[in-house]
Amino acid sequence: MDSSWDVWRSDGDSLWGGAQGGAMGQGDGDSPWGGAWGGMRGRAAGIPHGAGNEAILRGKQRGKGIPRPPPRPAPHSDEGKNTKNPCPAGAGPRRGGENPRPTCNSTCIPIHTQYCQARDDFALEFLRFYTLLMAASLTELDDETVRSMSVGAVFSDFAGKINSVDFHRTEDLLVTASDDDSVRIYDIANASLLKTTFHKKHGADRICFTHHPSSVICSSRHNLDSNESLRYLSMYDNRCLRYFKGHKDRVVSLCMSPINDSFMSGSLDHSVRIWDLRVNACQGILRLRGRPAVAYDQQGLVFAVAMEGGAIKLFDSRSYDKGPFDTFFVGGDTAEVSDIKFSNDGKSMLLTTTNNNIYILDAYGGEKRCGFSLEPSPNVTMEATFTPDGQYVVSGSGDGTLHAWSINMRNEVASWTSHIGVTACLKWAPRRAMFVAASTVLTFWIPDFSKLNSQQSTAVPGGV
């Protein structure tokens, strides 16, 4: 079994794995999943308080080519000999000078030296991956980083298919909605579940964050005839703040404006509606053919509506009542559009169709920059995603694989086994080198440093 599947069977006190998870994984400390994230709280791994700062400094020095200094000799004392509790428990007084720890005697120096060496090695390994997470707020990726992506966390306690996922724009949060009628919020920096609420009356289908990190908009799966197809939910106290009534069928596309309290919904009743979180009434309606998909650009000034026949209409969000200011057509594909997204820089649009074709379009002129075809996935609508720098596209496929393409080079950069079957939901975090993939299982993917190091070694002559 792939060791990455076991890394999260730990006690929950770790960031990306835990010592127990590392033991179940590769366990040698040379890989992301070998317990390197174990003991985020420090003491669980035997790292004293403050050792992390020193380790970070050493890491920065090594990054500049400065060799790592040998481990400092541990403090020893000939007084207060204690053979029952040798120095690995920690020599010297505790903070505050109270309850002194047992001191070391000369007979345990080899044990203490090994302990200190292991502690320093662990601190350095921890630093490598702590640095990864903190530096993951990157603005640009490269092929090697994309190729190195691996499963870092697995959440398999869902009782049904995951219908949609969304990242908060400014906080390290992820929300999911699934067929088991649950809405769940995760802390992606710690890969931990923060909150679960169940919505048996209406279910949970499409979902997106509002600007507040504990509020979401969720569409209904049940009781659609009640017109309560959209709900404004507070995850903090599990309350429904407002119902938005109007759609007569399932909502299949949902997005929040990045600049104000407006949001859009597209439904199988062949309509797109514009809403305001502060009022119940619909602010605008667009009637169209077929299944709609909607998206705001990252500045919130333009929104796109894709519809049957590959038509994409662009609207000014401040004067949408005047109609579209431009219309594009994706020629040669008559399938319905299942999803549409803008890149962060606003230069490209990503279009996914129900027959698993992916198109990247120029957002200004509508020209097709490139396109990719994937294996069909009957009864499963696929999702594709831009990376934050807009240079790559990642998507699932009907054969249970994941693929990444370079937009500029128009070639496939990486391909992975998803480990979870056909992936219905896929999104890249807006500020991290991380994406999530979901079917009936949720997986977090982050770069694997062992792969990065091996790639860099082979790229450098004489690399070891």
Automatic annotation (TrEMBL):
Biased composition (Gly residues): 18-28
One cellular component (GO) term of this entry: Set1C/COMPASS complex
Classification of source organism: Eukaryota, Viridiplantae, Streptophyta, Embryophyta, Tracheophyta
Matches recorded under InterPro entries: Swd2/WDR82 (IPR037867), WD40/YVTN_repeat-like_dom_sf (IPR015943), WD40_PAC1 (IPR020472), WD40_repeat_dom_sf (IPR036322), WD40_rpt (IPR001680)
Keywords linked to the UniProt accession: Nucleus, Repeat, WD repeat
Organism of provenance: Stephania japonica
Primary location: nucleus
Disordered as annotated region, ranges: 1-101
Cell compartment(s), UniProt: Nucleus
Protein name: Uncharacterized protein
Annotated WD repeat ranges: 155-196, 244-278, 374-415
GO MF annotations in UniProt: chromatin binding
Signal peptide (residue range): none
Domain of life: Eukaryota
UniProt family annotation: Belongs to the WD repeat SWD2 family.
